[in-house]
Amino acid sequence: MTQSITEVFADAFKTTFPLKSSPLVDCITNPVTIESMANALLYIDAKPVMADLPEEFPELFTQIDALLLNLGHISPERKDSLLAAGRYAAETHKPAVVDLVGVAATQLRYDIGQQLLQNHPNVIKGNISEVRRFAGLKSTGRGVDGSQLDQSVTALAELTKALQELTERFPNTTFLATGETDLVVSAKGQWRLENGVPQLDRFTGTGDIVGALTAALLGIGLSNDEAVVLTVSYFNCCAEVAAAQNTAGGIASFREKTLDQLSLLADQADWVKMVKGEAL
Ligand SMILES: Nc1ncnc2c1ncn2[C@@H]1O[C@H](COP(=O)(O)OP(=O)(O)O)[C@@H](O)[C@H]1O
Ligand SMILES: Cc1ncsc1CCOP(=O)(O)O
Ligand SMILES: [Mg+2]
Fold this sequence. Notes:
Blueprint: H1 5-8, H2 10-15, E1 24-28, H3 34-43, E2 47-49, H4 57-60, E3 66-70, H5 76-92, E4 96-99, H6 107-117, E5 123-127, H7 128-134, H8 153-169, E6 174-178, E7 182-186, E8 189-193, H9 206-219, H10 224-245, H11 251-262, E9 277-279
Parallel strand pairs: 1-2, 1-3, 3-4, 4-5, 5-6
Antiparallel strand pairs: 6-7, 7-8, 8-9
Helix pairs in contact: 3-9, 9-10, 10-11
This protein binds adenosine-5'-diphosphate, 4-methyl-5-hydroxyethylthiazole phosphate (TZP) and magnesium ion.
Adenosine-5'-diphosphate (ADP) binds next to α9 and α10.
Protein name: Hydroxyethylthiazole kinase
InterPro entries: Hyethyz_kinase, Ribokinase-like
Binding site for substrate: 50, 205
């Protein structure tokens, strides 16, 4: 019999939310969603700092608890700063998350993602189409968005196998592919998460926020697998509550309600009962 996700990660589900300390997360990210990301961190009681000049890293890395590297908008300067921060995090043993935004779209982002992988970051994530391309599989993603075609049962099974092979070379990295079903693969196991609503694909920054919140949970000491599973489950449960409240509203209202829940749902002790997912 398969084990439910709340059984596998029972301690983390019981003790993580609301946060008991405020991890400081440096986010090197894109200008499209930078404000949403900073606020999402504050809503869960984490602290954002959006510093990307390498000259600042020696001072800054003595203060931060975790690092988020998001490939969503590349300039020559941001490319240098992503690569420098990735190396610096490895040298200073700071937990790091890499978000492969747009890797399905361009070779340049794919190459940066592969370079960042060489630092053995704690987590590499993207939507299902980005992660398929990253894992060497055919991907039908467009721009920064995932494609429904990459969500089939066969495609998910193929991706699970490809990621398992990657974890043999990168055993300290957990891989997360998001979408209608979220797939988590690490050297310790594979899990499928089933929360969320389709409207999450209709406003920008949902994946970016998941990346930043994952870094925050790493910053308070959760394991890679715990941080990924708790973040995706919590964020997607917030969206489910928002969708249920938003019967007459449009997507902008749904967005606001989802973000609002980030600061509210943690205080509802039984939110964990909403969580759906299982070990594969
Ligand atoms: N169709 C869907 N049904 C349920 N949850 C979804 C759906 N699409 C996306 N999500 C959720 O929204 C978040 C962002 O995922 P996704 O849209 O794949 O990332 P990105 O914004 O990077 O493209 C994840 O938590 C994911 O589980
Ligand atoms: C960088 C960027 N470019 C267009 S939308 C966007 C934000 C992408 O965020 P997400 O990956 O969360 O959809
Ligand atoms: Mg994304």
